[in-house]
Fold:
Amino acid sequence: MDTVSGYLKARFAYVRQDLEKVLAKLADSDLAWAPRAGMRTIGGQIFEIAGKEKELIAWLKTGVWPE
Structure:
């Protein structure tokens, strides 16, 4: 059976592939679009996903959730 960390790392790789496909179709100007005022932009949402991946990988390596 796979480990939890192995499963998460595989899932991150899968999500990363999907995000790269999306980014390839968007211009920089598209990343500034938000559905409405006060909501995250497309770029901001992708940045949030990337940041969460970084936090989770740090947690997997250390066993401590980063501040």
Remarks:
- The chain has a mean pLDDT of 87.
- The helical segments are 4-25, 42-62.
- The radius of gyration is 15 Å.
